[in-house]
Design brief:
The protein is mainly α. Helices cover about 55% and strands about 0% of the residues. The protein contains three helices and no strands.
Length: about 60
C-alpha cells in the first residue's frame, strides 16, 4: 500500500499511483482508465495549469 500522502516526499519518482488516486478520491485501478503513467498525469496537469494561467491573464487584461 502507498505511503501516507502527508509523509510522502514531494517528487514524482517517489509518489505511488495509490497516493495520486487516494488524493483524488479515486480507486487506484481507475488511474489507468485515463493515464498510462505518472508522467502523463504531470503533462496533463501542466496543460491545465497553463490554460488556467492564460484565462487569468486574459481576464486581467480585459479590465
Amino acid at each position: 500500500m502507498g505511503r501516507d500522502v502527508d509523509q510522502a516526499e514531494p517528487d514524482l519518482l517517489n509518489t505511488e499511483i495509490v497516493d495520486i488516486t487516494g488524493e483524488a478520491g479515486r480507486a487506484a485501478g481507475s488511474f489507468y482508465n485515463d493515464f498510462e503513467s505518472k508522467e502523463e498525469v504531470l503533462a496533463a496537469l501542466a496543460v491545465d495549469i497553463g490554460a488556467d494561467a492564460d484565462e487569468i491573464a486574459g481576464a486581467s487584461r480585459s479590465r
